[in-house]
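Contributing new records

If you add data, match the layout below exactly. Sequence lines come first and carry their own label; structure lines follow with theirs. Keep one chain per record. Anything else will be rejected by the validation script.
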Amino acid sequence: MQNDPIPSITFPNGTEVPALGQGTWAMGEDAGHAKAEIESLKAGIDLGMTLIDTAEMYGDGGAEEIVGQAIRGRRDEVFIVSKVYPWNASLKGTVEACERSLERLGTERIDLYLLHWRGNYPLTETVAAFETLKASGKISAWGVSNFDTDDMEELLRVPDGAKVAANQVLYNLSRRGIEFDLLPWCQSRGIPVMAYSPIEQGNILHHPELIRIAKAYQATPAQLALAFLLERDGVIVIPKTSNAERAAENRDCVSLDITDDDWDALDAAFPPPTTKIPLEML
């Protein structure tokens, strides 16, 4: 495959990022895997996948420490996304959680800070905390994760809620529910969608039709599954791997040029929604 440039996505504040980034779910949980995890992230950065997604939840902060080691000496090359637990998302708790994340990451700012999912604290309080962090320079932008359309509409009614920069949700070939309403809602407002678990933790890779079409392009099923998401406007894809060679494989997905007939075949194998489906989560 040709080494085509990674397409870019622009956030509402004008910041441009690669549409293909790197996830870190389950990193930082085993010290024996740390070296491979760090090397994989570094390899991804070298290949242009400079957006790295993490969270205080992942490895109980361990993933943020892995990211911190991977970006040491090259902070300005990367765009860091992290997330606050909903039970930390009070006015004071959000600020304190962010400061702990910054320390683990070894940086003075998080580029995009997300509410991991909705909890008991009112959105007004969390948004106010996000705006406080922005004013202090500790974050550059904020967003949400696992918000359905009605959650997003409620968010926009909150003071400063319209400053939301992204919504990170479960989205892949087998989980296409957001295409009915949430994805077009975000697209029409210029709010990027971040697709987590883009290969359904590997569960879709044995699908015979996905395998058949991928083989026709001398590609892997994972590459085809990632290319499907990159074809969507305003979608950022964050596959996770702890293998540097797999990171390179992921990067090559941008060079796939799929025919309309094969997109139709994928639609037949993984049908798009025809009605509203409540937002799914992992």
